[in-house]
Amino acid sequence: MAMNKNVYLDNSATTPVAPEVLEAMIPFFQSRYGNASSLHSEGRDARRAVEESRALIAEHLKVHPSEIVFTSGATEADNLALLGTALRSTGGHLITSRIEHDAVRHSADWLASRGYDVTLLEVDEFGRVSADDVREAIRPDTMLVSVMAGNNEVGTIQPIRAIGEICRERSVPFHTDAVQAYGKIELPMDVIDMLSVSAHKLHGPKGVGFLYVRKGTKLTPLLHGGGHEHGRRSGTENVPGIVGLGVATQIAFEERDRVTQRMEGFREYLIQEVLKLPATRLNGHPTESLPHIANFSFEAIEGESLIMKLDEHHIATSTGSACSSPNLEPSHVLVALGVPLSMAHGSLRVSTGRQTMQDDIDALLKALPIVVQELRDMSPFKVGG
Amino acid sequence: MAMNKNVYLDNSATTPVAPEVLEAMIPFFQSRYGNASSLHSEGRDARRAVEESRALIAEHLKVHPSEIVFTSGATEADNLALLGTALRSTGGHLITSRIEHDAVRHSADWLASRGYDVTLLEVDEFGRVSADDVREAIRPDTMLVSVMAGNNEVGTIQPIRAIGEICRERSVPFHTDAVQAYGKIELPMDVIDMLSVSAHKLHGPKGVGFLYVRKGTKLTPLLHGGGHEHGRRSGTENVPGIVGLGVATQIAFEERDRVTQRMEGFREYLIQEVLKLPATRLNGHPTESLPHIANFSFEAIEGESLIMKLDEHHIATSTGSACSSPNLEPSHVLVALGVPLSMAHGSLRVSTGRQTMQDDIDALLKALPIVVQELRDMSPFKVGG
Predict the structure, then answer these.
(1) Which of the four pLDDT bands, split at 50, 70 and 90, describes residue B341?
(2) For residues A277 and A298, is the Cβ–Cβ distance under 8 A?
(3) Is B111 exposed, middle or buried (0-12, 13-18, 19+ CB in 10 A)?
(4) Which residue in B72, B177, B317 has the most chain A C-beta atoms within 10 A of its own C-beta, making it the best mutation to test that interface?
(5) Residue A109 with chain B: CB contacts under 8 Å
């Protein structure tokens, strides 16, 4: 491997845009630049491209195209699901979990600050929500249950079908943040009412995503204006972005079996090798996990120092969510899993993409023991102390 | 001119991305794809690009970089200004005008439906808001005044400095939607507290824009999550889009004198020639106008038929705002100007861009009399009847 080739193992933060995706987008910046709401040929051409992308995504999810609402990304999709449901009334009850992405968690916090009741479901040591807990938490005034499909920091997959069935039984809308799960695992769309997706986690462009909204689900819009997306999300359609999201979806679904099998192989190998290092643990579920995420903790090490040291070896990884990187608090996910504080500060998330090769994994496994030893030698804390 | 070259005179709906803009964006889809919140080299590289773009924009507006909040576009920026101000309380008073873009108008409508008081300022026959009316409308509980800088349908420029000075005097925050004005006319930033901008109206990409927020202006965020943009707008930064917006800004400001002078020439020539047709009027102000917009009405003609007929001649224009195209109501702007209904239905907006050539104007002026005559011959209404 050439010295300058970086090893990118932070695909849960963002992914390189697939060449096929960029190629499909380019014409919509150049000659096919119409506004999809314009009546003339240029506008109708853009409209067709938007609707073809919508139809493609709907086909892969086995839903109706009119149920796909394009947004600026998953943060907006999550906010639309939570705030769009809650702001229809001036109060009410929402259920979510302790390990949600900040886009769900802080939307729920904001609603709580405005007088809504929010129940935060606990998780077990592997980060699993219990479907029975969901059943017990539902009240007559529950407006929404929001539990993510697969966790972005530790990879744990939730019992989405069981949770969805309970919500259905009790006629409570069920939202799931599927940012990391989309295109990776099967999603039980028959019991999901709303589902958030981001393009840039899937080798699509940043700045675009969608919220699946089951027909009949009532939402007040977050963005008011020209009435785009059938009045559910105003703003000129990001045509190149939407086209890119469509192609990224197609690639992800078509390649899914092959790519996820390779990712699972990488994950198993990583777990086997990393756990050989002393005073190390795997965070999350050993098997009920997204294929592309493995999260480890190293005693007596600061996660951020580990990331920076690996970066010196030209290896890109993260401590957890990129979205909370500037925050020095231990990860709310690891705290919810009950990871001891001595371990919660020393976490490493390794996440693979469709471009990841065995070479990349080998480079990490070569550098990691060196870096861990260096940091432990410098640490004021003693391993096992 | 070759038969297939389309004449694009709908630059107020959207613009082709400038080649320099696309060229600057491409690397951020490919090799420089990092998440700007990641700690590693790829992340820091993306962060630098975002902050350089922010600094570039701030420099051209003569504001501080920290006052620029990147959004998914102007609709989000407008919503953030209005809802972000209003939702800090459970009630209060907002002042806006009858001729705002739907993103402001429908945000105000939504707030009104939730119990806020909204005053809609009237405009004169040219579409001008009176600064005195603003002064009279301000109450002790007024939370915000929002008046657009230049109208998107008829081009009329508002007395923004006078309105801003009154707001300053009365300590009421002043927001202006500058989507059409940015890069075209001088903006009195010293009296503006918030200002909305969209990239795709300015030869930048769709799906990105910003809200200028003067230091000290209090807003509750619309999108909650990872705390991006200093907690004012969460969501992974659209790095290629933000880079594109920076380059588009630079081009617009550097070329402004030359490009707007050419646009003014086109506008004067268009007005002179179009008004030679019988039963035709100019909508908006003859001189206090954005340089790139001219709006005409043709008696006894449906605007949509006119657009479609011109489209057959490979000329792209619009009746007014692309955002309300699917709506068959007469334009709320033309109604507010007091344009008679017989005329309000037959409007044509011609809007030029940096790529517009005299050939394009000539092609329109050649086709227009033919098309107008054809439609009038078919019309059940009689001109002057």
Answers:
(1) confident
(2) yes
(3) buried
(4) B72
(5) 224
Please determine, for residue B220, whether its predicted confidence score (pLDDT) is greater than 90: yes
Measure the CA–CA gap between B41 and B31, rounded to whole angstroms: 12
Give the pTM.
0.96
pLDDT at B328: 66
Residue intervals of chain A classified under CATH 3.90.1150.10 are 7-15+256-378
Cβ within 8 Å, pair B33-A39: no
Closest partner CB to B103 (pick from A8, A220, A234): A234
Q: Are A234 and B106 in contact (CB under 8 A)?
A: yes
Q: How far is A376 from chain B (nearest CA, A)?
A: 21
Token readout for B158 is: 């508002």
Chain B residues within an 8 Å CB radius of A316: 34, 38, 40-43
Which residue spans of chain A are classified as CATH 3.40.640.10?
19-251
Q: Give the rounded percent of residues in chain A with a pLDDT score beyond 70.
A: 96
Local confidence band at B380 (pLDDT 50, 70, 90 cut-offs): confident
Cβ of B102 and A223 within 8 Å? Answer: no
Instruction: State the nearest Cα–Cα gap between B307 and chain A, in angstroms.
Output: 7
pLDDT tens, position by position, A201-236: 999 999 999 999 999 999 999 999 999 999 999 999
Class of the A19-251 domain?
alpha beta
From the candidates B20, B23, B35, B96, which should be mutated to test the interface with A, based on the most A CB atoms within 10 A?
B35
- Residue numbers in B near A234 (CB within 8 A): 75, 102-103, 106, 323
Neighbours of A230 (CB within 10 A): 9
What are the Cα distances from residue A107, in Å, to A81, A111, A200, A321, B111? 10, 6, 21, 17, 19
From the list B148, B205, B364, B380, the residue with the least C-alpha distance to B274 is B364
The label of the residue with tokens 């861990």 reads A372
**Chain A, chain B: beta-carbon pairs less than 8 Å apart:** 277
- Taking an 8 Å cut-off on Cβ atoms, the answer to whether B324 and A239 are in contact is no
Closest residue in A to B8 (Cα) is A42
A383 vs B69, more confident: B69
Question: Which residues of chain A are under the pLDDT cut of 70?
Answer: 1-5, 322-328, 384-385
Residue in the structure block whose two tokens are 């309300």:
B324
Q: Among 3.90.1150.10, 3.30.559.30, 3.30.1490.100, 3.30.300.180, name the CATH number for the domain at B7-15+256-378.
A: 3.90.1150.10
Q: From CA B212, how far away is CA B193, in angstroms rounded?
A: 8
- Give the tokens for residue B66: 């920290």
pLDDT digits (tens, 9 = 90+) for B15-65: 999 999 999 999 999 999 999 999 999 999 999 999 999 999 999 999 999
**Taking the CB of residue A335, how many other CB atoms lie within 10 A of it?**
14
Closest among A254, A245, A253 to A201, alpha carbons compared: A245
Q: What is the 3-state secondary structure (H, E, C) of chain A?
A: CCCCCCEECECCCCCCCCHHHHHHHHHHCCCCCCCCCCCCHHHHHHHHHHHHHHHHHHHHHCCCHHHEEEECCHHHHHHHHHHHHHCCCCCCEEEEECCCCHHHHHHHHHHHHCCCEEEEECCCCCCCCCHHHHHHHCCCCEEEEECCCECCCCCEECCHHHHHHHHHHCCCCEEEECCCCCCCCCCCHHHCCEEEEECCCCCCCCCCEEEEECCCCCCCCCCCCCCCHHHCCCCCCCHHHHHHHHHHHHHHHHHHHHHHHHHHHHHHHHHHHHCCCCCEEEECCCCCECCCEEEEEECCCCHHHHHHHHHHCCEECECCCHHHCCCCCCCHHHHHHCCCHHHHCCEEEEECCCCCCHHHHHHHHHHHHHHHHHHHHHCCCCCCC
